[in-house]
């Protein structure tokens, strides 16, 4: 299966984070990312919104919440 560069659903997003980036999805990691990305004054968040748009930002935030829920 060929995974798109920009994820379009939860499974693609998770594959990108875990397999492509080698990042373990832990509750502490996810909570830190949610906190950082919830702050629109955060430079990374502004860059993310500028590059990928509000729709993809909202999807990504949802995928992080879904990942967190799956670990609780």
List the helices and strands and how they pair.
Elements (H helix, E strand, L loop, with lengths): L9 H11 L6 H12 L4 H29 L1
Helix pairs in contact: 2-3
Tell me the total number of β-strands. Answer: 0
| β-strand amount | under 5%
Number of helices: 3
Radius of gyration: 12 Å
Instruction: Please state the overall shape, judged from the principal axes of the Cα atoms.
Output: globular
Listing every helix as H and every strand as E from the N terminus to the C terminus, the arrangement reads: HHH
Main β-sheet description: none
Average of per-residue pLDDT values: 94
Helical fraction equals: over 70%
Q: Span from first to last CA?
A: 29 Å
Low-pLDDT sequence parts: none
Structural class: mainly alpha
Tell me what the structure shows.
The protein is mostly helical and 72 residues long. It has a domain at 26-71. Helix content is 72%, strand content 0%. It has helices at 10-20, 27-38, 43-71.
Structure keywords:
72 residues, 72% helix, mainly alpha, 3 helices
Question: Could you give a quick summary of the protein structure above?
Answer:
The chain is mainly α and 72 residues long. It has helices spanning 10-20, 27-38, 43-71.
């Amino acid at each position: 299966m060929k995974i798109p560069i920009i994820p379009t659903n939860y499974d693609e997003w998770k594959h990108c984070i875990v397999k492509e980036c080698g990042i373990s999805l832990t509750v502490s990691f996810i909570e830190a990312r949610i906190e950082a990305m919830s702050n629109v004054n955060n430079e990374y968040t502004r860059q993310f919104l500028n590059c990928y748009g509000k729709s993809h930002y909202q999807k990504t935030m949802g995928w992080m919440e879904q990942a967190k829920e799956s670990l609780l």
